[in-house]
Design goal:
Elements lengths: L13 H15 L23 H15 L1 E2 L2 H6 L3 H9 L2 E2 L27 H11 L4 E5 L8 E4 H17 L7 E5 L4 H12 L3 E4 L9 H7 L1 H7 L3 E4 L7 H7 L5 E3 L1 H6 L14 E6 L9 E5 H15 L6 E4 L6 H14 L2 E4 L2 H6 L2 H9 L4 E4 L1 H10 L15 E4 L6 H11 L9 E3 L11 E2 L8 E4 L1 H7 L13 E4 L3 E2 L4 E5 L12 E6 L11 H7 E2 L2 E11 L2 E7 L4 E3 L2 E3 L1 H9 L9 E8 L4 E9 L5 H19 L5 E5 L14 H9 L10 H50 L3 H18 L4 E4 L10 E5 L6 H8 L5 E5 L6 H9 L3 E3 L4 H12 L7 E4 L17 H9 L3 E7 L1 H4 L12 E5 L12 H22 L18
Parallel strand pairs: 3-12, 5-6, 5-7, 7-8, 11-12, 11-13, 13-14, 14-15, 28-29, 30-36, 31-34, 31-35, 32-33, 32-34
Antiparallel strand pairs: 1-2, 3-4, 9-10, 16-19, 17-18, 20-21, 21-23, 22-23, 23-24, 25-26, 27-28, 35-36
Helix pairs in contact: 1-2, 6-7, 12-13, 16-17, 20-21, 23-24, 24-25, 27-28, 28-30
Length: about 950
């Protein structure tokens, strides 16, 4: 028999509990006076609008007030204050260790290799099982010690194999999808790999917060189930009764089962042939929308992305990743789990609800297990700032935390600064906080900042960015600057660009649409050709974000689509707008749903603005309750604010589409209810802005084309006289003087200024070697214009196949080397070394070639061996801006400034007969030259992660 909680136990006051709930509901409500009376049997969500984050705040307040603690799951299951009283009756007093960090676990982990040659996730897991089966892989860390569990690689494979056998017994065929709706736990890990071992494609979807919501939750996911065509859904045992309901809504669904059932009836499985290009899993990005988008990620996508991220942050098997991130989200699934699996790192896995209930356990786990890596969206760091008191952090030590990733939603500079200031006294290093950028369409990660550097903030003029899209940098004390946090540079082998509305690439510090491409890029959306077509622009993919580049680093400024990021979740407005518009009393088609920044939490508040002609307090209260209910059914969470506004408040285009951004601006400025401008004026402004934008795009394209043609005309006009002078002038110095003047004239007439820094550092009258980076066909011409006196280039022998070009280059003293015939290449290199005479300058491009992928490539040794063996000083030269001015994959030049940075000569005295010593000197020269160039060329290092010293010749 249930206890009568209307008469609570001594020390637990119902009135005190109701007052705590009443205060919190009033704080979260826009109109506290319209809240219903808070009684024991009101619904916390439907009546009071307390969503998941609000419930966690309520849990913290209740525990502090009554001095009790109980599992977060019991709290989230509660639907009314009466349920909370029942849970309080069975709760235990708070122990000192519940919030304080626990003692460190002694003992280092043995170092292990990573499966570098694995082509699939299956091969990666099998490699670990074969190499070190008893190595601890996952520690499931629960508030209840009974729920704590350690999984080795052998355990993971054995559990997955049992699930695979059960799936094949149900008739799963290779290439079929299997939906997974499971909470964080061993069953999730077993099921994910079990689907892979059975030849299927896992489809993770997020589980319900409460079992009582299971029916509504499954209804919300019916579009995903219908789109992916999964014949099997693996979920918690309580869902088995709903099979008939789901089958009527997802026609492909045949079996609804649990991981325990699959393992219990499991024959031996047959491992299918899985290739790198096969789909590894589908990552759905649109939750409950009617048109779900399942990102297709192959095994190759995943392994490339994991390896690229690992190199960027120097991951090893000695790392420990502490994660509370949901496993249905790519940041938790790929970044935390699969990355740890690949590198042999230990994963400490916590429930997201455990973190939300007690964020101190996240930081405590980092200390207890010596966590080196961990990640959270911006709101996760805000929760720690808001919910943790100093007494909760007794003896906290975060000194092991070397990478604290902040991603998955906009990164707040204020959050980073406040988090560092709060926890620096507990060992947190400033450079550990790392804003990162990624998206499911690029597997998960796309850009990382360099490790060991504090986060970078760019302050730009607000008016200039808003009016022209130019991110003009201003001083820190400038009035009301816009502040953007750098997300770093693209991962090795990946590219980004910024384009205007017409698809024309923009220079640095110009805001536009961020596009990307690379080996981590997905192939499209599953069974959604329309959205796939929108995703691709040629071989570039749309990110959906607005951004600009500065010094090659990415600064996200906003979103081109109307996704609302609230509490780490993506919310799409269209479906909620339609549902609210169907309510009696709401003007259908006049509802706007948008997000507005919440400085208290660092995330966004979900706002529903609905037009109504009703005015009575009772009717408006009823409408708010119905909107709360509809939002809860669709999204699993109530809106943060509901604005019932008079007709005309929700702004629309002339074609009837909701103008969410304009409605949000009106809401934030407090202009709700203001009379809209006359329709004729709105139409005129719309026509004017639309016409101006179209004209601007056309003019922009025409100007770009005209400029490119103009530069080519200049070049073709200059080429014949320069070629003639090269042919007839008897002295090399005269020919070079003519070529230098011609190059300078070309760039001056083209409006492409060249800034040369450090010109006086060139050795006068002495032989020396110049080593420069290579990013464009313009590099040679730029150096011709920038360097004084005769500069003899060392070029690839393939250029001799172009007769006219070959003749001109030979007349200018160019020397050619063979790249593919090793013996001939060595002979060419030795021959060129003998040409270093007093006053002679040899110019090398040590990268050998260039590609569309930005970044400094590995250096060949020719230039450095020549300098080391002859004793000639080596001069490093960094060229910047030529890649933008003339891309490797286009013939159309673009207007842009270029820079040439000349370094101080690096001496390497010769030591005859000491080949090994000369080789070591050459390596030293290369290292110094590369450091100088990398610091000034404006591009990241493509080779640093994989560098190994070349073997000496012979």
């Amino acid at each position: 028999m249930q206890p009568d909680t209307s008469k609570p136990a001594a020390g637990i006051s119902a009135d005190a509990l109701l007052e705590i709930i009443r205060q919190l509901a009033a704080e979260l409500s826009v109109q506290p006076d319209s809240l219903p009376a808070v009684a024991l049997d009101v619904s916390l969500e439907r009546d009071l609008g307390l969503g998941s984050l609000a419930r966690m705040e309520l849990l913290a307040r209740v525990e502090r007030h009554f001095g009790l603690t109980f599992p977060a799951q019991a709290f989230t299951e509660a639907d009314t204050p009466r349920d909370l009283l029942r849970a309080l009756r069975a709760a235990q007093p708070i122990a000192a260790h519940d919030l304080a960090p626990e003692p460190a676990v002694p003992g280092p982990r043995e170092e292990a290799e990573a499966p570098r040659h694995a082509r699939t996730l299956i091969e990666a897991l099998q490699w670990h099982v074969d190499t070190h089966p008893e190595r601890a892989h996952i520690r499931l860390w629960a508030h209840d010690p009974a729920g704590t569990q350690t999984l080795t690689y052998r355990d993971l494979y054995a559990g997955a194999a049992a699930v695979a056998g059960g799936l094949q017994r149900l008739g799963l065929r290779c290439g079929q999808t299997v939906a997974m709706m499971l909470p964080t736990g061993a069953d999730y890990f077993f099921t994910f790999f079990g689907v892979l071992l059975a030849g299927g494609i896992p489809v993770p979807v997020y589980p319900p917060v409460r079992k009582s919501q299971l029916v509504e939750h499954l209804k919300r996911h019916q579009a995903i189930l219908q789109n992916c065509g999964a014949p099997i859904l693996v979920t918690i045992p309580e869902a088995r009764r709903l099979a008939r309901l789901l089958k009527s809504r997802a026609t492909a669904l045949i079996h609804l089962t649990s991981a325990a059932d699959l393992r219990a009836q499991s024959p031996p499985f047959q491992l299918p042939l899985v290739k790198a290009a096969d789909t590894a899993f589908l990552q759905y990005t649109s939750g409950s929308t009617g048109n779900p988008k399942g990102v297709i990620l192959s095994h190759a996508n995943l392994l490339v992305n994991i390896r690229s991220m690992g190199r960027a942050i120097a991951v090893s098997s000695e790392d420990v990743f502490v994660s509370w991130l949901p496993l249905y989200h790519d940041m938790g699934l790929i970044g935390a789990w699969l990355g740890s699996l690949y590198y042999g790192a230990l994963l400490i896995s916590m429930s997201p609800m455990d973190f939300l209930a007690r964020p101190g356990r996240w930081l405590g786990a980092i200390q207890r297990f010596g966590g080196t890596l961990s990640a959270a969206p911006n709101f996760g760091y805000e929760i720690c700032l808001k919910r943790l008191a100093d007494e909760d952090l007794t003896e906290l030590d975060l000194s092991s935390w070397r990478c604290a990733f902040n991603g998955a939603e906009p990164v707040s500079q204020a959050t980073l600064e406040r988090f560092y200031e709060r926890f620096k006294d507990y060992g947190l290093r400033r450079e550990a906080l790392m804003p990162v950028y990624g998206l499911a369409e690029s597997t998960v990660g796309l850009a990382f900042p360099p490790i060991g550097r504090a986060w970078r903030v760019d302050r730009v003029d607000r008016a200039t960015l808003m009016s022209s899209g130019l991110a003009r940098e201003v001083a820190a004390d400038a009035p009301q600057p816009l502040q953007f946090v750098s997300c770093g540079r693209p991962l090795a082998g990946h590219e980004v660009r910024i384009v205007d509305p017409g698809g024309r690439e923009l220079p640095e510090r110009r805001q536009g649409r961020l596009q990307f491409r690379g080996p981590s890029a997905c192939s499209g959306y599953y069974r959604n050709p329309r959205q796939t077509q929108r995703l691709f622009q040629g071989d570039w993919l749309e990110s959906g974000d607005l951004a600009y580049l500065a010094d090659g680093e990415i600064f996200i400024t906003g979103r081109t689509k109307d996704i609302i990021i609230c509490g780490g979740r993506n919310i799409y407005p269209e479906e909620l707008e339609e549902a609210v518009g169907n309510l009696a009393g709401v003007r259908k088609g006049n509802v706007a749903v948008f997000g507005t920044p919440d400085p208290r939490t660092g995330t966004e508040r979900l706002v529903v603005m609905a037009e109504t002609r009703e005015s009575g307090a009772g009717v408006l209260a009823r409408l708010r309750g119905e909107i709360q209910s509809v939002a809860l059914d669709l999204l699993g969470a109530p809106p943060d604010e509901i604005a019932l506004v008079p007709p005309g408040s929700v702004l629309k285009t002339s074609s009837g589409k909701i103008r969410r951004a304009a409605s949000r601006e009106r809401f934030e400025k407090g202009r709700i209810g203001a009379a809209p401008p006359p329709l004729a004026w709105q139409l005129f402004r719309l026509w004017l802005s639309g016409g101006a934008a179209m004209v601007g795009r056309v003019l922009g394209r025409f100007a770009a084309l005209a400029y490119g043609v103009y530069v080519w005309i200049l070049f073709l006009l200059l080429l014949p006289p320069l070629g003639l002078l090269a042919a007839v002038l008897p002295r090399l110095s005269w020919r070079w003087a003519a070529m230098r003047r011609g190059a300078r004239l070309l760039f001056r007439a083209a409006g492409m200024p060249i800034t040369v820094k450090g010109l006086t550092r060139l050795p006068a009258g002495a032989a020396h070697v110049v080593a420069a980076n290579h990013a464009s066909y313009l590099d040679g011409l730029v150096l011709t214009a920038a360097l004084p006196e005769v500069s003899c280039f060392v070029a690839k022998v393939e250029l001799t196949a172009v007769p006219g070009l070959h003749f001109m280059l030979r007349r200018l003293g160019t020397h050619f080397v063979e790249r593919f015939d090793a013996a001939q290449g060595i002979e060419d290199a030795r021959r060129i070394q003998t040409l270093l005479r007093p006053g002679q300058r040899l110019v090398y491009f040590p990268e050998g070639t260039f590609t569309r992928v930005s970044g400094l490539r590995p250096f060949e040794m020719g230039a450095f061996v020549a300098a080391a063996e002859t004793g000639a000083p080596l001069v490093p030269v960094a060229i910047r801006g030529t890649r933008f001015a003339l891309h490797p994959d286009t013939l159309m030049p673009r207007r842009g400034a270029m820079e040439v940075h000349i370094g101080a000569p690096v001496e390497a005295p010769a030591a005859a007969g000491e080949d090994q010593a000369a080789w070591q000197r050459a390596l030293g020269l290369r290292r110094q030259a590369r450091d100088f160039i990398l610091a000034r060329c404006g591009e990241h290092d493509l080779a640093a992660e994989d560098w190994a010293p070349p073997r000496p010749p012979g």
